[in-house]
Amino acid sequence: MAEDADKNAPVAQKRPKAPKPQVVGAKVSAAKPKAKPAPKATGAAPKAAAGSAPKAGAGAKVKYRVNAVKAVSAQDREADKQSMGQVHKSLVFLGIVTLAYLAYLIFSGQMDVFLSSLSQVDSSWILRGALCYLVYYVIGVSAYVLSVITDPNSPVGVRDLMSVEAAGVFFMNLTPNGMGAAPAQIYRLTRSGLSVGGAGALHSTRFIMYEAGEGIFAAIMLIFRLDYFLDSFGDFIIIGILLFAFKILECVVLFAICAYPKFFSSIGNWVLRFANKHGWVKDYDHWYQVVNNQIMEFSDGFKSAAKNKGDLIGVLVLTLLQLGCLYALPWFVLNAFGKEADLITCLASGSMLELLTSAIPLPGGTGGAEGGFALLFGGMFGAQASAGFVLWRAIEYFLPTLCAAPLLGLRSTSDESINHRFKRYGARLRRLFSRRGGGKGSGGIKITFK
Fold first, then answer.
1. Which stretch of DSSP H or E encloses residue 118?
2. Residue 157: CA atoms inside 13 Å, Cβ hemisphere, count?
3. What is the pTM of this model?
4. How far apart, in whole angstroms, are the C-alpha atoms of residue 364 and residue 179?
5. How far is CA 330 from CA 288, 357, 388, in A?
6. What is the C-alpha to C-alpha distance for residues 20 and 71, in angstroms, rounded to an integer?
7. How far apart are CA 67 and CA 415, in angstroms?
8. Rounded distance between C-alpha atoms, residue 197 and residue 275, angstroms
9. Angle at 174 between CA 131 and CA 251, to 5 degrees
10. pLDDT digits 0-9 by tens, 239-292
11. How many helices (H) and strands (E) in the chain?
C-alpha cells in the first residue's frame, strides 16, 4: 500500500528557469563543422543543436556562450554595489563612534562602573535575547515564503529568501536610514529569477506590510501604556506621537500609490520635468522608468497580492510577531542584570525607541539609539544604563549584522518551486498520519471476535 500511496503523491514540478538575458558582447566561438550521418528514412528533419545559430556558408555553426545564468538587472547590480560602498563608509563611521564612546567612559570616570556592571551579567539571559533575534529573522523569512507560496511558478527558493532577509538586516543596519536595504533585496530577488518588476512588487508589498505592522504595533502599545508615558516623560511623549503619526502617513501614501498609480505617475512626471529643466536630475532615463514603469508594476504586484487577503493578513500577523521579538530585547537585557521589568512596558518603550532610531539619518540610527535608550530605559537600568545599552546594542545591532553577512550569498539550487515543495511535504505528512491512524497500509494484527 505504501507503493500505491507514493504513486498517488503529487509529482514535483520544476520551477521555470529564468529567461536568459540579452548580453551585449557575448563571447562567440565558431565550432568546427562535423560530419553528420545521413538522416533515417522517417521523413523527420534532424534536430538542431541547442544554442546553435542558423547555418552559414558551408554549414559552420556558431555557438553563443552567455555568462549570466539568470536575468539580473544591471541597474540592480549597480545599486547593490553602491550599497556595499555605503557599508564601507558606515563601518568607518561606527568605528569612530565606538572610540568616542570609550573615550567618554574613560574621561567621565564611568569605566569602573561599566566594567563592574558587565561582570554581574547573567549570560543565559543574553543568550535568550540572541535566540529571540534569531526567531525575528526566521519569522521574516517565513513572511516572504508566505508571500510566494501560492504561486506554483515562482522561481524563488527558500535560500534565496534567506539571503533577501539577511540583506535587509545587513544593509538596514549599515546604511543611512537603511537606504541600501531596498536595492540590495531587489537585486537578490532578481538574481533568483524574478523579473525586475516582480521583484520590486514582492519587496514593496513586504515593505508596506512591515511599515503597517510598525504603525499598528505602536498604536496598540500607546493604547495600553499611554498613561505610563505621560507620567514618566510628560510632554516628551508628543515627539513620539508625532513620529507615530508620520509612520501612519507614510503607510497611507504607500497604499494610495498602489490604489492610484496613474495619478501619482502624472505627479511624478511633472516633478521630473521640473527638476530636469533646472538641471537637478543626473540620470533622467532611470527616474523616467521608475515613474512610468516601476510604479505601475509595483501597483499591479500589490493588487495581485491583495487578492489573496488571507495570505496578506497572515503576513501582517507574522510581521507583528516579528516586531514583538525585536522590541522585547531590552526586557532580556534587564533580566540579565537582575532587574524586574514588565514585558508590555518594555515592548511599548521598544516600539517608541525604534521610531526614534529610524528618524535619525545615520547608520544604525546612531544618536537616536543612544539618546532614546537613555531616555526610555535609563530609569529601569539605573547606574547600569551604560552597560545595558552596550549589551542591548550588541544583540540588536552588532551581532545580527555580523551574522547576516555570510548569508548574503545564499542561492537556491533546486528547480522545484516552494508551492510544489509544500504540497509534496503535505502529501507525505498526510500519508504518515493516515498510517498512524490505522488507515490503509497501517499494518498490524487484526483480531475478530465471533
1. helix 111-119
2. 17
3. 0.73
4. 11
5. 44, 14, 8
6. 6
7. 19
8. 25
9. 85
10. 878 888 888 888 888 888 888 888 888 888 898 888 888 888 777 777 787 787
11. 18, 2
Quote the cell numbers at residue 280. 537637478
Q: Which range has highest mean pLDDT (236-250, 314-328, 355-369)?
A: 314-328
Is residue 408 within 8 A of residue 161, CB to CB? The reply is no
Centre a 10 Å sphere on the Cβ of residue 26 and count the other Cβ atoms it contains.
Answer: 12
Backbone angles phi, psi at 123, to 5 degrees: -65, -25
Question: Rounded to an integer, what distance in angstroms lies between the CA atom of residue 179 and that of residue 185?
Answer: 11
Three cell numbers at 200? 520590486
Asked whether the beta carbons of 422 and 158 are under 8 A apart, the reply is no
Please state, in angstroms and rounded to a whole number, the distance separating the CA atoms of residues 153 and 415. Answer: 10
Estimate the crossing angle of helix 343-358 against helix 196-233, to 10 degrees: 120
The average pLDDT across 120-135 equals 94
Residue 191: how many CB atoms within 10 A of its CB?
Answer: 24
**Strand, helix or coil for residue 418:** helix
CA distance 129 to 395: 7
Burial class (CB in 10 A: 0-12, 13-18, 19+), 183: buried
SS3 361: coil
